[in-house]
């Protein structure tokens, strides 16, 4: 009886704590979404908190009537798609090479990968490299310097090593070369891990911010995160100056609408790949 009572109290305590933590995390999100739809009178009165008296789409119409938002969206989609493809291509191929025992130079490559996790060139040398290669004010500057993540590479390498060697040997006996083994056998067996790291890379590319500040100075090449920064710091008057609309919403309303539009695609993508998270991160972690 004491054991059951203790377990019940423990479970109840956990439920209360997790409920409070969930409310603390969810309420700001609801507030941001509601402020983006709130009419001007609710925002001006200061009595509005979580649910507006009516839904007003003027902030979204105001943003959609400008060309700069869709240009920033186009840049972000390009960086996300091209960057994620390059990330997966370079990471998986290098991880596969480093996972093969018969490749004599794999220890050297692994040392070079791990070394970058401990020591980096620094901000200024990296900037000089990007500038000397002619990538300044180019979207390629947002995808090439971050083409490979050392941590993700090591995890994917462990995943590849968990694939039984007998499968690789059978394919070799059947006449399949290394490229065929990699494309026809290793990659299909690694879908959970690839789905997980596709999401990780896609989120990182979608949220490109610091590199964009350093390497991109042209407003026509701004990704969404830089547009959001400019809207928050400078205000809508300068950023959305060419809006073809008679109704100009309050700055806070357009700021919240920009936040929602910037975050919505990644939030929508999460549920479709959520089932791969645990499996993709744990299959390659323990070898037995």
How would you describe what is shown here?
- The protein has 288 residues and is mainly α.
- It has two domains: 1-56; 57-288, MetI-like (MetI-like fold).
- The protein is built from 15 helices and no strands.
**DSSP strand count:** 0
CATH class label of the largest domain: Mainly Alpha
Helical region count? 15
Strand content: under 5%
Contiguous runs where pLDDT drops below 50 for at least 5 residues: none
What is the end-to-end distance? 40 Å
CATH homology group of the largest domain: MetI-like
CATH hierarchy: architecture of the largest domain: Orthogonal Bundle
Shape: globular
| Main β-sheet description | none
Averaged pLDDT: 80
CATH-defined topology of the largest domain: MetI-like fold
- The number of distinct structural domains comes to 2
What is the helix/strand order?
HHHHHHHHHHHHHHH
Give the % helix: over 70%
User: Helix- and strand-based class?
Assistant: mainly alpha
């Amino acid at each position: 009886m004491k054991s059951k009572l203790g377990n019940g109290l423990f479970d109840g305590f956990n439920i209360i704590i997790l409920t409070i933590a969930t409310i603390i995390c969810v309420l700001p999100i609801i507030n941001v979404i509601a402020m983006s739809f709130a009419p001007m009178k609710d925002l001006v009165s200061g009595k509005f908190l979580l649910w507006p008296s009516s839904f007003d789409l003027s902030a979204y119409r105001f943003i959609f009537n400008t060309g700069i938002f869709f240009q920033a969206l186009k840049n972000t989609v390009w960086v996300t798609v091209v960057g994620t493809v390059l990330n997966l291509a370079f990471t998986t191929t290098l991880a596969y090479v480093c996972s093969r025992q018969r490749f004599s130079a794999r220890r050297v490559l692994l040392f070079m990968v791990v070394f970058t996790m401990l020591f980096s060139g620094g901000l200024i040398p990296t900037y000089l490299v990007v500038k000397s290669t002619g990538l300044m004010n180019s979207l390629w500057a947002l995808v090439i310097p971050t083409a490979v993540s050392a941590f993700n590479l090591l995890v994917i390498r462990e995943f590849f090593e968990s694939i039984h060697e007998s499968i690789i040997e059978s394919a070799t006996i059947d006449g399949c070369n290394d490229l065929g083994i990699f494309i026809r056998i290793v990659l299909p067996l690694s879908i959970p891990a690839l789905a997980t790291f596709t999401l990780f890379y896609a989120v990182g590319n979608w949220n490109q911010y610091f590199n964009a500040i350093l390497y991109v100075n042209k407003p026509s090449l701004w990704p969404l995160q830089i547009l959001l920064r400019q809207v928050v710091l400078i205000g809508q008057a300068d950023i959305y100056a060419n809006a073809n609309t008679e109704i100009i919403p309050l700055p806070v309303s357009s700021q919240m609408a920009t936040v929602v539009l910037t975050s919505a695609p990644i939030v929508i993508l999460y549920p479709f790949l959520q089932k791969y998270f645990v499996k993709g991160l744990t299959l390659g972690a323990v070898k037995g």
